[in-house]
Amino acid sequence: MTMNKNQKRKTVGIFSLASFLNDMGSDMIYPIWPLFVTTFLSANMAVLGFVDGLSDALVSISQAISGYVSDRIKKRKIFIWLGYLFGSLSRVGYAFSTAWQHIVPFRILDRAGKIRSAPRDAIIANLSTRKDRGKNFGILRTMDNLGAVVGILITIFFFSFLGYKKLFLLAAVPSLIAVLLVFFFIKERKKEEKNKIYKGLSFKNLSKNLKIFFVLSATFALGSFSYSFLLIYAKMFGFKITFIPVLYLIFTAVAALFSLPFGRLSDSIGRKKVLFLSFFFWILVCISFIFVKNYFLMIFGFVLYGLHKGALEPVQKTFVAELSPKQYRASTLGGFQMVIGLVALPSSLIAGILWDRINMIIPLYFSLFLTLLSMIILVFVKEK
């Protein structure tokens, strides 16, 4: 069964709406997450880095498994709605946590919801062409970020009335709606090659370009620590706790506004140029935080962070999808997310240790070095 144009638009539309709802729930929590961990649960920066990094690292293995199993059994949908369900359940767990040790399994469950990503991205990649693939991933990322903006606004206006527990319980609801949307309105495509045995993805299946891209992405991810550090940095600089969600809103809103334009731009000028631009924005973020001397410059740093996210995330996935063998697309996307996630643990942990033991500026210098190295490696990647 092949999709016609209307079916393709409907599929992209439903996935985008589900992503909007899920991110709305997630981002009712994320702006206050570092404050919840360090203030309400009394953890230090190393613990924050450990929790953020560990959850991403462990769930990345599940993303690779979901990509592999999805290709093997030739089914995508079940991983997607289950992923949204995991996210919803984790927020209920956060609501009843009273020590940082309690949140670890729920944080892992939350990020385990990313099992949806590789199968969903494979569907988007397969129904797209070279001319609109960047646009479709850009639409998906835009809706992610718009949902995040709505979630952040809810937190800004209602957190002082609801507190952590009630806000976390409320955040579980949008993802439940996303589960229903995917379950009832996404139709699984019938595969013509049902009898073909799937042998699984190995490193030798990847092209030289894709191997190089994996290396440079892992290098960059090692220095690109969790957003939590930027928010805590702003708090220590002097921003009031009530303004921290606003800073989160600023970079998320900018990412929402620019994800689609950057996706479209990559369709016309190429993926590499937009990736170079995303790395350049991150360099400016680090520089602005290192030399910050006033509130305006720090706010501008969060704008640059939003531009970095808007350029990086949709184009990175598009690039991987195009460089991967079609029959291994979900496995490759899952494997890519696994590599990035596994690097996230040492990344945030190293940043937390450098922050606690030496100085809060040192993680930024470390990240600058690895970003410049990533840009050099990107020169050697060739586009299809």
Element layout with pairings:
Blueprint: H1 5-26, H2 33-40, H3 45-73, H4 77-95, H5 100-112, H6 117-127, H7 133-185, H8 208-223, H9 227-237, H10 244-269, H11 271-290, H12 295-323, H13 329-357, H14 362-378
Question: Would you give an account of this structure?
Answer:
The chain has 14 helices and no strands. It has 384 residues and is an all-alpha fold. The chain has one domain (5-186, 201-378): Up-down Bundle (Growth Hormone, Chain: A). The model has no long low-confidence stretch (mean pLDDT 82).
Keywords for this entry:
384 residues; 14 helices; mainly alpha; Growth Hormone, Chain: A
Which strand-content bin applies to the residues? under 5%
Query: What order do the helices and strands follow?
Result: HHHHHHHHHHHHHH
Tell me the structural class.
mainly alpha
Tally of domains: 1
End-to-end Cα distance = 27 Å
Highest CATH level, the class: Mainly Alpha
**Unreliable stretches, pLDDT < 50, 5 or more residues?**
none
What's the tally of helices? 14
Give a quick rundown of the structure.
With 384 residues, the chain is an all-alpha fold. The chain has helices spanning 5-26, 33-40, 45-73, 77-95, 100-112, 117-127, 133-185, 208-223, 227-237, 244-269, 271-290, 295-323, 329-357, 362-378. The protein has a single domain (5-186, 201-378), classed as Up-down Bundle (Growth Hormone, Chain: A), CATH 1.20.1250.20.
